[in-house]
Write a structure and sequence with these properties.
Elements lengths: L3 E5 L4 H12 L3 E6 L6 H11 L4 E5 L5 H9 L3 E4 L6 H6 L1 H22 L5 E6 L11 E3 L4 E3 L16 H21 L3 E6 L1 E3 L11 H10 L5 E3 L5 E6 H13 L1 H4 L2 E5 L6 E3 L2 H11 L7 E3 L8 E2 L4 H7 L7 H14 L1 H6 L5
Parallel strand pairs: 1-2, 1-4, 2-3, 4-5, 5-8, 8-12, 9-11, 10-14, 11-15
Antiparallel strand pairs: 6-7, 11-13
Helix pairs in contact: 1-2, 1-8, 3-5, 5-6, 7-12, 10-12
Length: 348
């Protein structure tokens, strides 16, 4: 019998790429998703067509404990990706943000605990649990900010400092996942992720900025830059994240109860406009529309770079796809799916 994976939020960007990789290797993949984000219905249809007989689907809400419990019952591994993913949305509706991110994660953990079966649970957290990190010295250069004394970036010992309702809800969930390993012995793993990008990402202004910028550039539309565009992020191509996720499950005897900062690391950084736009213009073969600039968003970090050395050691993993190659792959996917990306913007 093939192993069974439950992926909450499995029709989203990361979930689709993870589901495809598992299904291609003979897994049965159960997608549990409410299908509210742009592109999720298209992603689900693509998965079912590409992997017939390997993909099951439940339209479900992680706030519904009974539905979550039923989905968990048959799973060998749980990848908990379902979330409210935008800081901006959390500012407008903090209650829904809390219920999806904090309560939804609690429901997943309780469903696993009450099932009486220890199955690995991998939770996708965020670097936003570290807050603005205003105490870390940052220098300003011509096209970017940089850490003064953190050549490897931010490691997992960085103090938590939840900032924004989104940071609080994801941070609360992060700590519940960690504590269920300590208190109940559940084999949980936390990935505190930086910027992930790649195919099947229907990026918007509020979330998925790399794909949003690529989609906008391909359509000739200007984007809005919040801040001065010198903010630096480490970016990771989604196939690399999937490889890390699978390594964490394969090595669960080592990774259970552990937290990993996951991103491209110091070798895969760029400033969100000044350097990114130059790379993208080079790939597209022409200049991009000039952006509009707006005030900084609450809690935005001038620099965030993941120190990925723990993941490299314990997962036997390291990023293989560089920024230029990854962006080229994303551009190719966007250009090949212009119609789907346009349809994802059509109002309901």
């Amino acid at each position: 019998m093939s192993p069974r994976a439950l992926i909450t939020g499995g029709a989203g960007f990361i979930g689709t790429n993870l589901a495809a990789a598992l299904a291609a290797d003979g897994w049965t993949v159960h997608i549990f998703d409410l299908l509210v984000r742009p592109g999720t219905e298209w992603n689900l249809g693509w998965l079912k067509q590409a992997y017939p007989g390997r993909v099951e689907f439940t339209r479900g809400d992680v706030r519904d404990f009974r539905a979550v419990s039923e989905a968990v019952r048959r799973a060998d591994v749980v990848f908990h990706l379902a979330a409210q993913v935008a800081v901006t949305t959390s500012l407008v509706d903090p209650r829904t943000d809390f219920e999806i991110n904090a309560l939804g994660t609690f429901n997943v953990l309780e469903a696993v605990r009450q099932s009486g079966k220890d199955r690995p649970v991998l939770y996708t957290s965020t670097n936003k649990v570290y807050g603005a990190m205003a105490e870390i010295p940052v220098a300003e250069d011509l096209t970017r900010y940089r850490y003064v004394d953190r050549p490897w970036g931010i490691d997992e010992t960085q103090p938590l400092d939840f900032h924004s309702p989104y940071g609080c809800s994801k941070g609360a969930a992060d700590q519940y996942v960690r504590d269920y390993a300590r208190i109940y012995g559940l084999p949980t793993v936390i990935f505190r992720m930086s910027c992930i990008y790649g195919p099947h990402q229907f990026g918007t202004e509020d979330q998925g900025w790399v794909a949003h910028f690529v989609i906008s550039a391909a359509a000739g539309r200007p984007v809005t830059i919040y801040g001065d565009g010198k903010q630096v992020r480490d970016v990771l191509y989604v196939a690399e994240l999937v490889a890390a996720m699978r390594a964490a499950v394969d090595r669960i005897q080592v990774t259970a109860g552990r937290v990993y900062n996951i991103g491209g690391g110091p070798e895969n950084t760029l400033s969100v406009w000044h350097e990114f736009s130059a790379f993208l213009a080079e790939i597209l073969g022409g200049p991009l529309p000039q952006p509009a600039f707006a005030p900084w968003r609450p809690g935005d970090q001038k620099v965030y770079v993941s120190d990925i050395r723990r993941a490299m050691r314990e997962l036997n993993w390291r990023p293989q796809v560089g920024v230029r190659e990854g962006l080229r792959l994303l551009v190719e996917w966007v250009l090949a799916h212009r119609e789907e990306l346009a349809l994802s913007r059509t109002p309901p």
